[in-house]
Protein backbone atom coordinates (compact mmCIF):
# COMPACT_ATOMS: atom_id res chain seq x y z
CA UNK A 1 0.00 0.00 0.00
CA UNK A 2 1.45 3.33 -1.09
CA UNK A 3 2.19 5.92 1.56
CA UNK A 4 -0.18 8.87 1.53
CA UNK A 5 2.62 11.32 0.66
CA UNK A 6 3.89 9.35 -2.31
CA UNK A 7 2.53 10.35 -5.72
CA UNK A 8 1.40 7.43 -7.84
CA UNK A 9 0.49 9.61 -10.80
CA UNK A 10 1.84 12.90 -12.07
CA UNK A 11 -1.11 15.25 -12.04
CA UNK A 12 0.82 18.39 -12.95
CA UNK A 13 1.31 18.71 -16.67
CA UNK A 14 4.07 20.73 -18.27
CA UNK A 15 1.41 22.65 -20.17
CA UNK A 16 0.17 24.04 -16.86
CA UNK A 17 3.49 25.80 -16.13
CA UNK A 18 3.43 29.54 -16.58
CA UNK A 19 6.35 30.95 -18.45
CA UNK A 20 7.88 34.16 -17.04
CA UNK A 21 8.71 36.56 -19.88
CA UNK A 22 12.40 37.31 -20.21
CA UNK A 23 13.38 40.68 -18.74
CA UNK A 24 10.50 40.87 -16.26
CA UNK A 25 12.57 39.70 -13.27
CA UNK A 26 16.24 40.11 -12.42
CA UNK A 27 18.32 38.25 -9.87
CA UNK A 28 20.77 40.22 -7.76
CA UNK A 29 24.21 38.59 -8.15
CA UNK A 30 25.22 39.70 -4.65
CA UNK A 31 22.30 38.69 -2.41
CA UNK A 32 20.22 36.51 -4.73
CA UNK A 33 17.09 38.63 -4.40
CA UNK A 34 14.64 38.26 -7.31
CA UNK A 35 13.59 41.78 -8.28
CA UNK A 36 10.77 42.94 -10.53
CA UNK A 37 12.54 44.80 -13.33
CA UNK A 38 10.28 47.88 -13.27
CA UNK A 39 10.84 48.17 -9.52
CA UNK A 40 14.60 47.88 -10.08
CA UNK A 41 14.43 50.64 -12.69
CA UNK A 42 12.60 52.89 -10.23
CA UNK A 43 15.55 52.45 -7.87
CA UNK A 44 18.09 53.43 -10.58
CA UNK A 45 19.04 49.75 -10.99
CA UNK A 46 20.24 49.43 -7.40
CA UNK A 47 19.19 46.38 -5.34
CA UNK A 48 17.03 47.72 -2.51
CA UNK A 49 17.97 44.76 -0.30
CA UNK A 50 21.79 44.79 -0.41
CA UNK A 51 22.58 48.03 -2.34
CA UNK A 52 24.29 46.19 -5.20
CA UNK A 53 24.70 48.55 -8.18
CA UNK A 54 23.82 46.83 -11.45
CA UNK A 55 25.82 48.02 -14.44
CA UNK A 56 23.80 50.47 -16.54
CA UNK A 57 24.44 51.96 -19.97
CA UNK A 58 24.92 55.53 -21.15
CA UNK A 59 21.20 56.04 -21.83
CA UNK A 60 20.39 55.50 -18.15
CA UNK A 61 23.00 58.00 -16.94
CA UNK A 62 21.86 60.64 -19.42
CA UNK A 63 18.23 60.29 -18.35
CA UNK A 64 19.25 60.26 -14.69
CA UNK A 65 21.50 63.35 -14.75
CA UNK A 66 20.08 65.59 -17.48
CA UNK A 67 17.07 67.70 -16.55
CA UNK A 68 14.02 66.16 -18.20
CA UNK A 69 16.29 63.60 -19.85
CA UNK A 70 17.02 66.15 -22.58
CA UNK A 71 20.42 67.03 -23.99
CA UNK A 72 22.29 68.10 -27.11
CA UNK A 73 24.72 65.42 -28.26
CA UNK A 74 28.02 66.25 -29.96
CA UNK A 75 30.04 64.21 -32.48
CA UNK A 76 27.58 61.30 -32.41
CA UNK A 77 28.55 60.25 -35.95
CA UNK A 78 32.29 59.86 -35.31
CA UNK A 79 33.55 56.31 -35.93
CA UNK A 80 36.89 54.58 -35.61
CA UNK A 81 38.82 53.37 -38.62
CA UNK A 82 41.48 50.66 -38.70
CA UNK A 83 44.72 52.66 -38.90
CA UNK A 84 46.93 49.70 -37.95
CA UNK A 85 45.12 47.20 -40.19
CA UNK A 86 44.39 45.05 -37.13
CA UNK A 87 42.97 41.69 -38.19
CA UNK A 88 43.97 39.03 -35.65
CA UNK A 89 41.95 37.13 -34.50
CA UNK A 90 38.99 39.13 -35.85
CA UNK A 91 39.28 42.11 -38.21
CA UNK A 92 38.83 45.35 -36.30
CA UNK A 93 36.19 46.55 -38.76
CA UNK A 94 34.07 43.50 -37.91
CA UNK A 95 34.44 44.12 -34.18
CA UNK A 96 33.35 47.72 -34.62
CA UNK A 97 30.40 46.75 -36.81
CA UNK A 98 29.26 44.18 -34.25
CA UNK A 99 29.51 46.74 -31.41
CA UNK A 100 27.57 49.33 -33.42
CA UNK A 101 24.83 46.83 -34.20
CA UNK A 102 24.65 45.63 -30.59
CA UNK A 103 24.53 49.05 -28.91
CA UNK A 104 23.17 51.44 -31.52
CA UNK A 105 26.16 53.66 -30.73
CA UNK A 106 29.12 54.59 -32.93
CA UNK A 107 31.67 54.64 -30.12
CA UNK A 108 32.24 53.91 -26.44
CA UNK A 109 31.57 57.45 -25.20
CA UNK A 110 28.77 59.97 -25.66
CA UNK A 111 29.37 63.69 -25.14
CA UNK A 112 26.50 66.10 -24.53
CA UNK A 113 25.50 69.56 -23.39
CA UNK A 114 22.61 69.73 -20.94
CA UNK A 115 21.39 71.15 -17.66
CA UNK A 116 21.64 69.62 -14.21
CA UNK A 117 19.13 71.16 -11.81
CA UNK A 118 19.08 74.24 -14.01
CA UNK A 119 22.88 74.61 -14.34
CA UNK A 120 24.47 74.29 -17.79
CA UNK A 121 26.95 71.41 -17.96
CA UNK A 122 28.99 69.35 -20.37
CA UNK A 123 28.81 65.62 -19.79
CA UNK A 124 30.70 62.64 -21.19
CA UNK A 125 29.34 59.16 -20.48
CA UNK A 126 31.26 55.99 -21.34
CA UNK A 127 29.37 52.84 -22.32
CA UNK A 128 30.94 49.50 -21.36
CA UNK A 129 28.80 47.62 -23.88
CA UNK A 130 30.91 49.04 -26.73
CA UNK A 131 34.07 46.86 -26.80
CA UNK A 132 34.37 47.03 -23.02
CA UNK A 133 34.29 50.83 -22.97
CA UNK A 134 37.82 50.79 -24.34
CA UNK A 135 39.50 54.08 -25.25
CA UNK A 136 40.59 54.39 -28.86
CA UNK A 137 41.33 57.45 -30.97
CA UNK A 138 37.69 58.48 -31.34
CA UNK A 139 36.97 58.17 -27.61
CA UNK A 140 39.99 60.32 -26.83
CA UNK A 141 39.07 62.86 -29.50
CA UNK A 142 35.46 63.15 -28.34
CA UNK A 143 36.55 63.69 -24.74
CA UNK A 144 39.18 66.24 -25.83
CA UNK A 145 36.51 68.12 -27.80
CA UNK A 146 34.02 68.23 -24.92
CA UNK A 147 36.80 69.58 -22.67
CA UNK A 148 37.50 72.27 -25.28
CA UNK A 149 33.80 73.16 -25.32
CA UNK A 150 33.84 73.48 -21.53
CA UNK A 151 36.81 75.83 -21.85
CA UNK A 152 35.02 77.88 -24.49
CA UNK A 153 31.65 78.14 -22.72
CA UNK A 154 32.95 78.02 -19.13
CA UNK A 155 30.61 75.11 -18.33
CA UNK A 156 31.54 72.58 -15.63
CA UNK A 157 32.48 69.15 -16.95
CA UNK A 158 31.35 65.74 -15.68
CA UNK A 159 32.76 62.46 -17.01
CA UNK A 160 31.21 59.09 -16.14
CA UNK A 161 33.86 56.42 -16.65
CA UNK A 162 33.31 52.72 -17.35
CA UNK A 163 36.18 51.12 -19.20
CA UNK A 164 38.56 48.21 -19.54
CA UNK A 165 41.29 50.66 -20.57
CA UNK A 166 43.08 51.48 -23.82
CA UNK A 167 41.89 49.75 -27.00
CA UNK A 168 44.60 47.31 -28.05
CA UNK A 169 43.36 47.23 -31.66
CA UNK A 170 44.70 50.78 -32.08
CA UNK A 171 48.02 50.19 -30.33
CA UNK A 172 50.07 53.29 -29.55
CA UNK A 173 47.40 55.54 -31.07
CA UNK A 174 45.14 54.47 -28.23
CA UNK A 175 47.82 55.18 -25.63
CA UNK A 176 48.29 58.67 -27.07
CA UNK A 177 44.76 59.54 -25.95
CA UNK A 178 45.93 59.45 -22.34
CA UNK A 179 48.22 62.48 -22.73
CA UNK A 180 45.76 64.22 -25.08
CA UNK A 181 42.94 64.15 -22.53
CA UNK A 182 45.19 64.83 -19.54
CA UNK A 183 46.74 67.92 -21.14
CA UNK A 184 43.29 69.30 -22.01
CA UNK A 185 42.15 68.80 -18.41
CA UNK A 186 45.21 70.72 -17.20
CA UNK A 187 43.98 73.71 -19.22
CA UNK A 188 40.51 73.31 -17.73
CA UNK A 189 42.01 73.31 -14.24
CA UNK A 190 44.13 76.40 -14.98
CA UNK A 191 40.96 78.18 -16.13
CA UNK A 192 39.26 77.39 -12.81
CA UNK A 193 36.46 75.37 -14.42
CA UNK A 194 35.37 72.43 -12.24
CA UNK A 195 35.66 68.86 -13.46
CA UNK A 196 33.84 66.08 -11.60
CA UNK A 197 34.89 62.51 -12.35
CA UNK A 198 32.51 59.63 -11.59
CA UNK A 199 34.03 56.13 -11.51
CA UNK A 200 31.70 53.22 -12.17
CA UNK A 201 32.25 49.47 -12.44
CA UNK A 202 34.78 48.86 -13.88
CA UNK A 203 37.20 51.75 -14.42
CA UNK A 204 40.61 50.34 -15.29
CA UNK A 205 43.72 50.60 -17.46
CA UNK A 206 44.56 53.72 -19.43
CA UNK A 207 41.31 55.46 -18.52
CA UNK A 208 42.19 55.20 -14.82
CA UNK A 209 45.72 56.34 -15.65
CA UNK A 210 44.45 59.48 -17.38
CA UNK A 211 41.25 61.51 -17.22
CA UNK A 212 39.32 59.33 -14.74
CA UNK A 213 41.62 60.16 -11.82
CA UNK A 214 42.18 63.84 -12.64
CA UNK A 215 38.90 65.23 -11.35
CA UNK A 216 38.77 68.17 -8.97
CA UNK A 217 36.26 65.95 -7.18
CA UNK A 218 36.20 62.18 -7.71
CA UNK A 219 33.08 60.16 -6.92
CA UNK A 220 32.80 56.38 -7.18
CA UNK A 221 29.79 54.09 -7.19
CA UNK A 222 29.64 51.50 -4.38
CA UNK A 223 31.53 48.30 -5.12
CA UNK A 224 33.06 49.59 -8.35
CA UNK A 225 36.33 47.96 -9.46
CA UNK A 226 38.90 50.71 -9.94
CA UNK A 227 42.54 50.19 -10.85
CA UNK A 228 45.20 50.09 -13.52
CA UNK A 229 46.21 46.44 -13.83
CA UNK A 230 43.94 43.64 -12.65
CA UNK A 231 44.40 42.10 -9.19
CA UNK A 232 45.67 38.80 -10.64
CA UNK A 233 48.46 40.59 -12.53
CA UNK A 234 49.43 42.61 -9.45
CA UNK A 235 49.41 39.51 -7.25
CA UNK A 236 51.72 37.69 -9.65
CA UNK A 237 54.00 40.72 -9.99
CA UNK A 238 54.56 41.42 -6.30
CA UNK A 239 54.25 37.81 -5.17
CA UNK A 240 51.96 38.67 -2.25
CA UNK A 241 48.31 38.26 -1.37
CA UNK A 242 46.29 41.44 -1.75
CA UNK A 243 44.20 43.03 1.03
CA UNK A 244 40.51 42.20 1.19
CA UNK A 245 38.45 44.46 -1.03
CA UNK A 246 41.55 45.59 -2.95
CA UNK A 247 40.67 47.93 -5.86
CA UNK A 248 37.07 48.46 -4.76
CA UNK A 249 35.66 51.97 -4.44
CA UNK A 250 35.51 51.60 -0.67
CA UNK A 251 39.17 50.53 -0.44
CA UNK A 252 40.27 53.49 -2.58
CA UNK A 253 38.22 55.86 -0.43
CA UNK A 254 40.17 54.74 2.65
CA UNK A 255 43.45 55.30 0.78
CA UNK A 256 42.44 58.78 -0.39
CA UNK A 257 42.17 58.04 -4.11
CA UNK A 258 38.48 59.01 -4.30
CA UNK A 259 36.64 61.73 -2.42
CA UNK A 260 33.34 59.95 -1.82
CA UNK A 261 31.52 56.72 -2.54
CA UNK A 262 28.10 57.86 -3.73
CA UNK A 263 24.96 55.79 -4.08
CA UNK A 264 23.69 56.13 -7.66
CA UNK A 265 20.32 57.30 -6.37
CA UNK A 266 22.07 60.30 -4.79
CA UNK A 267 24.49 61.02 -7.64
CA UNK A 268 22.65 63.93 -9.23
CA UNK A 269 22.12 65.56 -5.83
CA UNK A 270 25.80 65.09 -4.90
CA UNK A 271 27.03 66.59 -8.17
CA UNK A 272 24.63 69.50 -7.75
CA UNK A 273 25.96 70.20 -4.24
CA UNK A 274 29.55 70.27 -5.49
CA UNK A 275 28.73 72.61 -8.37
CA UNK A 276 26.80 74.95 -6.06
CA UNK A 277 29.83 75.06 -3.78
CA UNK A 278 32.09 75.98 -6.72
CA UNK A 279 29.80 78.70 -7.98
CA UNK A 280 28.58 80.05 -4.64
What is the CATH topology descriptor of the largest domain?
2-enoyl-CoA Hydratase, Chain A, domain 1
**Helix content class:** 25-40%
Mean of residue pLDDT values: 92
CATH superfamily of the largest domain: 2-enoyl-CoA Hydratase, Chain A, domain 1
Number of strands: 9
Number of discrete domains: 2
Strand content: 15-25%
Assembly of the depicted chains: single chain
Instruction: State the low-pLDDT regions, or none.
Output: none
Structural class: alpha/beta
Main pleated-sheet profile: 7 strands, mixed
Number of helices: 9
Q: Which CATH class of the largest domain?
A: Alpha Beta
User: What is the spatial order of strands in the main beta sheet?
Assistant: 3-4-5-6-7-8-9
Distance between the termini: 85 Å
The second-level CATH architecture of the largest domain is: Alpha-Beta Complex
Quick overview:
The protein is α/β, with parallel strands linked by helices and 280 residues long.
Amino acid sequence: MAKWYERTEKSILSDDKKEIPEGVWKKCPQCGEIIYYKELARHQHVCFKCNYHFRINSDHYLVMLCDGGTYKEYDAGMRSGNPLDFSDPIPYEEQLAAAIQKTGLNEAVRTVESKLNGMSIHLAVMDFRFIGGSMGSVVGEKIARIIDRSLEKKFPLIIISASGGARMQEGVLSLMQMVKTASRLARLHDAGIPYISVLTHPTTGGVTASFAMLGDVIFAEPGALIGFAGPRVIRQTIGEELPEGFQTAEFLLKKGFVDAVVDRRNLKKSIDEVLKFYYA
